[in-house]
Amino acid sequence: MGKANQTAVTEYVLLGLQEHRNLETVLLLLCLGVYSVNVLGNALLIGLNVLDPRLHRPMYFFLSNLSLMDICGSSSFVPLMLVNFLKAQRTISFPGCALQMYLTLALGSTECLLLAVMAYDRYVAICQPLRYPELMSGQTCVWMAVLSWGAGFANSLLQSILTWRAPFCGHSVINHFFCEILAVLKLACGDISLNALFLVVATAVLSLAPFLLICVSYVFILATILRVPSAAGWHKAFSTCSAHLAVVVVFYGTISFMYFKPKAKDPNLDKIIALFYGVVTPSLNPIIYSLRNAEVKAAATALKFPLWSHSPEQGRYEMTFAFCASFSRAG
């Protein structure tokens, strides 16, 4: 059946918002601008993390992974979508659709896991400061990142195999901007209960479980912060966690609104919300981290003005461990 699907359909039609051409023109300009911010902002974060020794720490290592994932996730569908906005006939080949669906699903799952790992890093830094070098060693961080990426891509491979084995009966019109897995499964003309079951299990394991781990981590972090008597300690704790917490709220808030809201009477609204999740949300991460993080600002300044790169403020190198030590003394 899977082979029949592939030989019967060689390309798919992506409907987008063909009935609202004026709106698509607006979306073209908005998405092009936001996508540019996404790529440039996240590439800048990666560059800063690589070039500035002050950022060679676990938190920024995971932030670089998150930035790379945001660039890849948007790039997997936005360029083709922008081109399709200019065309009357919007098509994508079967291999292109399969790859697009695989990448968007894989990178979405990976982001959930990376956000959980970053929450664990903040938990160890604040609640287990004396064990931070041991628990968050370079080798441990690499393994955490590899497992996050590996689990996300392995899950996507399984979901993709199950999806393309479903009977489609030659249906080739996808009512979406890109090959999103739920939009593709709507083309199936047979039983997809197994697909639904595996999607539910994957959502529970790779989305809800990381979210619960994030919540538990911040419960312990909050409990530790409340035991710190000094206002300076409070400020340091909130400054080191606020950016990550903001990214988590934006990411999971958008997902929750997209999948758990009442079904819209106009299906185009659901597509626009999905577009917001796929295009706008990744571009917010570099903005949030650059606005809320003094070290990122300092690294950007040093990169822009090389004469400042040899600042005498060597204490920044030890800021994380000094911060952790303040919590251990408070305890």
Automatic annotation (TrEMBL):
It is a multi-pass membrane protein. The keyword Ribosomal protein does not apply. Pfam families: 7tm_4. One of its GO terms (molecular function) is G protein-coupled receptor activity. Keywords: Cell membrane, G-protein coupled receptor, Membrane, Olfaction, Receptor, Sensory transduction, Transducer, Transmembrane, Transmembrane helix. SUPFAM superfamilies: Family A G protein-coupled receptor-like. It is found in: Cell membrane. PROSITE patterns: G_PROTEIN_RECEP_F1_1, G_PROTEIN_RECEP_F1_2. It comes from the Eukaryota. The chain crosses the membrane at residues 26-48, 60-82, 102-120, 141-158, 197-225, 237-260, 272-291. Its main location: membrane. GO terms for cellular component: nucleoplasm; plasma membrane. Residues 41-289 form the G-protein coupled receptors family 1 profile domain. Belongs to the G-protein coupled receptor 1 family. Odorant receptor. This is Olfactory receptor. It comes from Rhinolophus ferrumequinum (Greater horseshoe bat).
